[in-house]
Automatic annotation (TrEMBL):
A Pfam family it matches: Amino_oxidase
Record protein name field: NAD(P)/FAD-dependent oxidoreductase
Alphabetical list of Gene3D superfamilies matching this protein: FAD/NAD(P)-binding domain (3.50.50.60)
SUPFAM superfamilies: FAD/NAD(P)-binding domain
Length: 501
């Protein structure tokens, strides 16, 4: 290969996994002159960034707000480089979420901060001072895009962070639950903690960054949903000359003298390359493909401390013969009659109504999804008896439909499709160990955001990881940046100019 007037050897890379991180690493590697091949266990790209079809309805399993959706975000150019936005419309919501209680009160988190402030004061003028503190803080994040920091060098992050370091420290220590206690109005005190996807313990720093991104139109929804988004990147990769082999599960990463040299597939075939990259599940990679030979105490403790409970890991999706275009796209609905799931009582339904994308349902019909946190252990044990497992899924769906029918009268008779995905479902179809997504190591904090967690493994050369497990952070943009930054690192290592075309 001729580059810059010099002959450059064409190095080869094997990438394990065609999720967003693997596809990103593949695209940038080919752009920079590497010979690449991706081995993917599934028959489609995307990994956790996926959708599936049931009886004419498309159920989306991933994206809520895509960072970098608008040109004012630095991340936008990454999606352009990856071809993810080509021919794809973007939806920007006027509401982040609406919270309702059984008494009929509603708190709408408008994405326009001025409108949000006005609405909150209408709900409780007695809380005007607290409301102004909240919206003033959100406005201070309008010029800071935390999710794009992965594009920057440490000194650039420092320069951008310095003017807001006080805000980072202050709002990083306060959770939504903490801030809610400032409200005098009992409904706002109850509603405020659930406005960030219903997660508990979310720092205000994260929420304020999301609110600012929605206001700036840099957090949106790519039309067609998660799988179509992934397929756009797949097309970019193959158009560049990259190769993907589907239904090709990697069982072992081959090593010689503590160097990764290739992979062995489940069919017994072996393939070799100069560099091996795993963009697959972290536990499967480290303790399965590499047999736990390249770890340290930090890695061991991290996976030993894997949570059993994970937010949004149980999803009840409905296809309804009903036009719900006038309903909010996201609804946190406090229940008069609590719902019991996996032995846990829930006083609220967190609902997504996919009324904003006509690609997901037949005309005049709508996909609705309720999301719960769930215990992997509970569902794994239950699945040992397939009949009990399926019965429990049906019971949960029935209970969800009954409660939704109270909010949307007549819905029960309009449901045409029911799909229940458990943590075991996600484990089976995505290969993610225990259906988990990455979590932040408790003892590393901000350093992990800067340096990642397992981008490489101790004692193993010619091997790298990309994606959420490499970074110990979740998010589609995290995955894409992880693949991009890996190739940038390889270019620096081999003294090549990193290019993005």
């Amino acid at each position: 290969m001729l580059k810059g007037g010099k002959i450059v050897s064409r190095k080869s890379i094997i990438i394990i996994g065609a999720g967003i991180a693997g596809l990103s690493a593949g695209c940038y590697a080919v752009m920079n002159g590497y010979d690449t091949v991706i081995f993917e266990a599934h028959d489609k790209p995307g990994g956790l960034c996926t959708s599936w079809n049931r009886r004419g309805y498309t159920i989306d399993g991933c994206i809520h707000h895509l960072a970098g959706s608008g040109p004012s975000s630095e991340l936008y150019r990454v999606w352009q480089e990856l071809g993810a936005l080509e021919g794809r419309g973007m939806v920007f919501h006027d509401e982040f979420v609406r919270v309702e209680d059984p008494e009929g009160r509603a708190f709408t988190v408008y994405t326009d901060i001025d409108r949000l402030e006005q609405h909150m004061k209408q709900l409780s003028i007695a809380d005007a001072e607290v409301i102004e503190e909240y919206t003033r803080a959100a406005r201070r994040f309008l010029n800071i895009d935390l999710l794009a920091f992965g594009l920057l060098k440490p000194w650039q992050i420092g320069m951008k962070s310095l003017p807001r370091i006080g805000d980072f420290i202050k709002w990083g220590k306060i959770t939504l639950e903490d801030f809610a206690q400032k409200f005098k109005d009992p409904f706002l005190r109850k509603a405020f903690p659930v406005i960030q996807y219903g997660f508990s313990g979310i720092p205000m720093l994260i929420h304020l960054n999301f609110l600012a991104g929605c206001h700036n139109r840099t957090l949106g929804w790519p039309s067609g949903g998660s799988l179509q988004f992934a397929r756009s990147i797949e097309r970019r990769y193959t158009a560049l000359g990259g190769r993907i082999h589907y239904r090709s599960r990697v069982e072992k990463i081959l090593t010689e003298d503590n160097k990764a040299v290739g992979v062995r597939l489940s069919d017994g075939t072996e393939h070799r390359a100069d560099t091996i990259v795993s963009a697959a599940d972290g536990h499967t990679t480290i303790f399965g493909m590499l047999e736990g030979k390249y770890i340290d105490d930090g890695i061991s403790k991290y996976y030993q401390a894997a949570p059993d409970y994970l937010d949004m890991s149980l999803q009840v999706s409905l296809g309804a013969a009903r036009d719900m275009s006038r309903e909010p796209h996201a609804l946190a609905l406090f229940l008069e009659d609590p719902l019991e799931v996996s032995g846990k009582k829930y006083e609220r339904l967190d609902i997504e109504i996919f009324n904003f994308d006509k690609n997901l349902a037949p005309p005049g019909k709508t996909v609705i999804k309720a999301m719960f946190g769930a215990s992997y252990g509970y569902w794994k044990d239950l699945r040992a008896d397939r009949e009990r497992y399926e019965y429990q899924k049906q019971e949960i769906a029935r209970a969800v439909i009954d409660r939704m029918d109270k909010r949307f009268p007549g819905l029960k008779g309009q449901v045409e499709m029911v799909d229940v995905a458990t943590p075991v479902t996600f484990e089976n179809y995505t290969g993610n160990w225990k259906g988990l997504q990455a979590w932040m190591p408790p003892d590393r904090g901000f350093g992990t955001m800067m340096n990642g967690f397992t981008r490489s493994l101790p004692g193993l050369d010619n091997f790298y990881m990309a994606g959420q497990w490499a970074e110990a952070m979740i998010g589609i943009s995290t995955a894409a940046l992880s693949g991009r930054n890996l190739v940038r690192h390889l270019c620096k290592k081999y003294k090549r100019l990193f290019v993005t075309k």
